[in-house]
Design a protein that fits this description.
This protein has one domain (2-199): Up-down Bundle (Rhomboid-like fold), CATH 1.20.1540. It is 70% helix and 0% strand. It has helices at residues 2-32, 52-55, 63-82, 87-105, 121-138, 141-161, 172-199. The relative contact order is 0.14.
Length: 200
């Protein structure tokens, strides 16, 4: 009975975390309608663009951009919560690693008009690859089932979204770096989990 209570409490915390995170993205968007937040985008290899590593997922160009990212983000975060993974640490890892890779290797436009990357799509691609890779490597029923579901829902988007075939306003390189970060986080998480299980 104690274990069930702990699990329910933990799942409740996960759901609240998802709601708070997504609500924060919407609040930032509403603020951006009145105050320009363009200076907080991620500009590759620019010192002032470093802050974008953290702020990029919270910034969106317009309502369509925001809504298009909100739906898959909620689905993926809820699937992550259901996988019993350490969701906050995984999300933070994907954001920081994916953002750093984008800052180091992403497109930067020109000196007169630098490219500022914004949006939560890098995190979305990171969550997709995390759930697929961790599900396959752990080879447990629930993670594997989630991996199959995510692959079915987002596999095509994942494949096409990381290719440089998008229009100039789509950050395919942000998608690619996010996907790499998600795969790396999955390998790290799986390795750490195995170590913890071996120690018990």
């Amino acid at each position: 009975m104690k274990m069930a209570t702990d699990h329910e409490h933990g799942m409740g915390d996960e759901v609240r975390g998802v709601v708070i995170f997504v609500a924060a993205i919407w609040v930032v968007f509403l603020v951006s309608r009145f105050v320009s937040l363009d200076q907080f985008g991620l500009v590759p290899r620019s010192w002032h663009g470093l802050i974008g590593i953290v702020t990029m997922p919270f910034l969106h160009a317009n309502f369509r951009h925001l809504l298009g990212n909100t739906v898959p983000l909620v689905i993926l975060l809820m699937l992550l919560a259901g996988s019993r993974a350490r969701s906050p640490a995984i999300v933070a890892t994907i954001i920081l690693l994916g953002g750093t890779l984008l800052w180091l290797f992403g497109r930067n436009g020109t000196a007169a008009q630098p490219t500022a990357h914004i949006g939560a799509s890098g995190l979305i691609f990171g969550l997709v690859t995390f759930l697929i890779v961790s599900g396959i490597t752990e080879w447990r029923f629930v993670p594997l089932l989630i991996a199959i579901l995510v692959g079915f829902l987002f596999g095509g988007t994942l494949f096409w979204g990381v290719l440089p075939l998008q229009n100039a306003h789509v950050s395919w390189d942000g998608h690619l770096r996010g996907a790499v970060a998600g795969a790396a986080a999955a390998m790290l998480w799986t390795s750490r989990r195995r170590t913890e299980l071996a120690a018990t």
